[in-house]
Amino acid sequence: MLGLKEELLKSIWHAFTALDLDRSGKVLSHNLCTVLNVPHDPVALEEHFRDDDEGPVSNQGYMPYLNKFILEKVQGNFDKVEFNRMCWTLCAKKNLSKNPLLISDEDAFKVWVIFNFLSEDKYPLIIVPEEIEYLLKKITEAMGAGWQQEQFDHYKIALNTSREGLSAWELIDLIGSGQFSKGMDRQTVSMAINEVFNELILDVLKQGYMLKKGHKRKNWMERWFVLKPNIISYYVSEDLKDKKGDIILDGNCCVEALPDKDGKKCLFLIKCLDKTFEISASDKKKKQEWIQAIQSTVSLLRAGSPPPHKEARQKRKELRQKLLAEQEELERQMKELQAANENKQKELETVRKQLEAAAARAAEEEKKRLQTQVELQDRFSLELEREKMVRQQMEEQVAQKSSELEQYLQRVRELEEMYKQLQEALEDEKQARQDEETVRKLQARLLEEETAKRAELEKWHLQQQQTIQMTEAEKQELENQRMMKEQALQVAMEQLKQLELERKEALEQYEEVKKKLETAANNTKSWKDKVAHHEGLIRLIEPGSKNPHLITNWGPAAFTEAELEERQRSWKGKKATSE
Predict the structure, then answer these.
(1) What Gene Ontology molecular-function terms does this entry list (predicted)?
(2) What backbone torsions phi and psi does residue 248 show, to the nearest 5 degrees?
(3) Could you tell me the sign of the dihedral formed by the alpha carbons of 292, 296, 297, 302, in that order?
(4) Contact assessment for residue 306 and residue 314, using Cβ atoms and an 8 Å cutoff
(5) Three-class SS of residue 55?
(6) Per-residue confidence at 56, pLDDT binned at 50, 70, 90?
(7) Mean pLDDT (whole number) for 439-445
(8) Disulfide check for 15: which of 54, 90, 162, 221 has CB 3.0–4.6 Å away?
């Protein structure tokens, strides 16, 4: 009943939108009750169309009344063609194009009914390009013409660019314009529309003239047979005015081919529960077509399936809904992808900004690193130069030490030669050493006196400087003291000069002693033989200690301080013994 209600609503919608309900609503409701065989409810009708704002028309509109009082009471025992014709009459005058068409008003009505069957279940009603193609193909096949797919593709492209589909009146204009039926006369087009109308709207699966054998007289009469999903009706002629009977079909019916008999050919038998019908087709082809069509109808009844054209329409609708759902899902995914892409773009922009900031920081750090590297390179260069200088100094020191070592070795060799002569001059050497010690002590005393005098002189000079800075009142007194101190300084200078002379004399004496020592060293013989008996008289030359160097007749660092003290004690003992 739900599918029937939807089919009825489409036709009613055209009439509903074409009328002014304030003046014609009662007329539409009355006509609907009449053609749909629904009992009238005058009280509800008057209440609904009451001329004040309290009536349901103002509050709820016309559709609640239509559903409750009319459509819910429809049982299906009405003439669909008569119902559609009533709705067509109410809306055609207002909407049908005034331009001349190649089809009659009756054909336009049939196209309008076909539109309601093929249109989408949403309002305002339109027929989509796929259903337009299906309808035009059916009409073209019914006319026996070839389908022009390329022409329709161009028309479909132009249509899709402007809107989703056509209204009923635009479809009538399209078919009535002859755009897809060029070369066909009006009668051919009308017959094609009527054939498609019979199939899609009246559920006529097959029709045609055949001979039927009577049940009582057993005579053969020509009848016009019309096959529908659950019934075969036969008429006197194809105008369907004089109906002679029906063959009720169900799942228990069957069709069998019969051999020729009684001068009749192309026979077949239709078996039902209560009756059997013998029929003769005009030729074998028609016989086979009718047998196959009836068998297909019985098979659909057994399976509980709808007629082929309704099933095909439902499949096309489901396919479009599936494609629409897939398209919507694709659009949703595209939106999600676009949103994700935008988010990614924002993230990439954020990352790009972060990378730019990181690049700026990296550039700044690189700049600092390069600056630090330059500084380190400069510092390293300075340290390298310093290291080179230190290395050069070390090399020079090594070379100097090497030279000193060569000199030392040379001196050792010389001393070995001198060792042989040193034995004879040993006594002279001892005396020379005593003289040397005396001169050294004298020199040390003179140096100490000179140091004391210099310190005293510096003290007087400092006092003199301090005195100069005194006030003018003390200047005269200080001048006298300065004169006295200058005299004293003069005396000290003379003493210092005297000490200098004495030091020079001591140095001269030291040179004389040194010459004597050299003379004694030249006269020394067999020095090596005496080394074992006189341990400690000679030592190999080694690098000196950090203590102050001592000067002897053998050169710097010839004796240690302890050895020198031991020899002093030995000389003093010998001197005391000789005295």
Answers:
(1) DNA binding
(2) -75, 125
(3) positive
(4) yes
(5) coil
(6) very low
(7) 84
(8) 90
Tokens of 461: 């000079």
The whole-number pLDDT of residue 255 equals 93
DSSP classification of residue 78: S
Q: Which whole number is the average pLDDT over 239-252?
A: 90
Count of other CB atoms within 10 angstroms of residue 286: 16
Is 70 exceeded by the pLDDT of residue 419? yes
Q: Work out the angle at residue 554's Cα, subtended by the Cα atoms of residues 551 and 559, and round it to the nearest 5 degrees.
A: 60
Cβ burial 349-375 (10 Å sphere, 16+ → b, else e): eeeeeeeeeeeeeeeeeeeeeeeeeee
Q: Is a pLDDT exceeding 90 seen at residue 63?
A: no
Q: Are strands 206-213 and 276-280 parallel, antiparallel or unpaired?
A: antiparallel
Q: What is the mean pLDDT of residues 103-109?
A: 91
* pLDDT computed for residue 558 by the predictor: 54
For the record, the structure tokens of 51 come out as 């001329």
Q: What is this structure's pTM?
A: 0.55
Average pLDDT value for residue range 534-556: 51
pLDDT tens per residue across span 146-196:
888 888 888 888 887 767 889 989 899 888 888 888 778 889 999 999 989
Residue with tokens 């009146």: 169
Q: Which CATH class is domain 206-306?
A: mainly beta
Residue 219 DSSP class: -
Asked whether the predicted pLDDT for residue 57 surpasses 50, the reply is no
Question: What was the pLDDT predicted at 573?
Answer: 80
pLDDT at 417: 82
d(CA 247, CA 272): 8
Q: What is the maximum alpha-carbon separation in the chain?
A: 202
* Residue bearing tokens 């053969």: 220
- Long-range contacts of 132-139, Cβ-Cβ distance < 8 Å, separation of 24 or more: 132/156, 132/165, 132/166, 132/171, 132/174, 134/316, 135/171, 135/196, 136/175, 136/180, 138/196, 138/199, 138/200, 139/175, 139/180, 139/181, 139/189, 139/192, 139/193, 139/196
Q: Say if residues 423 and 429 touch (Cβ distance below 8 Å).
A: no
pLDDT tier, 59 (very low <50, low <70, confident <90, very high otherwise): very low
Residue count of the chain: 579
* Residue 200 burial (CB count, 10 A): 21
551 DSSP β-pair partners: 556
Every domain of the chain and the residues it spans: 1-202, 206-306, 307-390
176 touches 103 (CB < 8 A): yes
